[in-house]
User: Which sequence fits this backbone?
C-alpha cells in the first residue's frame, strides 16, 4: 500500500533539495512509501538562461544528494523547470524551433547580412520567446552595430518575441541586447 511520507520527513527532503547549488526553488514535491522504499518526485526551478546540460547536471545532483542523505529513498524523479510552471503563463501557443525560424526568415529577408547568423538560441519564458542570435566576429564595430540593430528590429516584429540578444562569436563582448 502506498502512503505519503511524514510531514517532517518531507520538510527535510525539501531543505536538502534547496541546499543543492543551482536550485532556485522547488514545487510539486510528491513523496510516497512503497513497502520500505521511499519515492520522490519533484520539480526544481533553475536559472532560465543556463544550458540544458547544466540544468540536467543540477537535477542529477539533487537526485544523488537525496539518495546519499536518505537511505530509504530508492527512486527520485527530478523535473527541471526554467520558471514556476504553476504560476507562469503557459508557452503552449508558442511555435517550436523549425516553425519559428521559418517565420523569422520572413522578417529577416530584407536584412543584409542576416545570412551570417550562425546559431539561434530560443528561450520560452513567461508566455513569450526570447531570442539569442550569434554572428561571427565582424571586426568593424560600426557594421556589427548596424547589422545587430537591423536584426533586432526585424526579430522584434514577430508578435511572440519579447527580447533579442545578439552576440559576436570570437569577440570580447556582445554586440547588442534589447529587452
Assistant:
Amino acid at each position: 500500500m502506498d502512503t505519503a511520507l511524514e510531514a517532517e520527513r518531507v520538510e527535510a527532503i525539501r531543505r536538502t533539495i534547496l541546499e543543492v547549488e543551482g536550485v532556485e526553488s522547488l514545487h510539486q514535491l510528491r513523496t510516497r512509501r512503497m513497502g520500505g522504499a521511499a519515492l520522490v518526485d519533484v520539480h526544481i526551478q533553475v536559472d532560465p538562461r543556463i544550458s540544458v546540460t547544466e540544468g540536467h547536471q543540477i537535477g542529477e545532483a539533487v537526485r544523488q544528494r537525496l539518495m546519499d542523505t536518505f537511505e530509504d529513498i530508492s527512486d527520485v524523479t527530478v523535473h527541471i523547470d526554467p520558471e514556476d510552471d504553476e504560476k507562469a503563463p503557459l508557452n503552449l501557443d508558442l511555435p517550436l524551433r523549425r516553425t519559428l525560424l521559418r517565420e523569422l526568415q520572413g522578417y529577416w529577408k530584407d536584412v543584409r547580412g542576416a545570412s551570417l547568423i550562425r546559431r539561434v538560441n530560443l528561450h520560452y519564458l513567461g508566455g513569450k520567446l526570447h531570442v539569442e542570435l550569434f554572428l561571427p566576429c565582424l571586426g568593424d564595430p560600426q557594421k556589427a552595430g548596424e547589422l545587430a540593430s537591423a536584426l533586432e528590429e526585424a526579430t522584434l516584429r514577430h508578435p511572440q518575441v519579447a527580447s533579442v540578444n545578439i552576440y559576436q562569436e570570437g569577440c570580447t563582448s556582445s554586440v547588442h541586447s534589447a529587452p
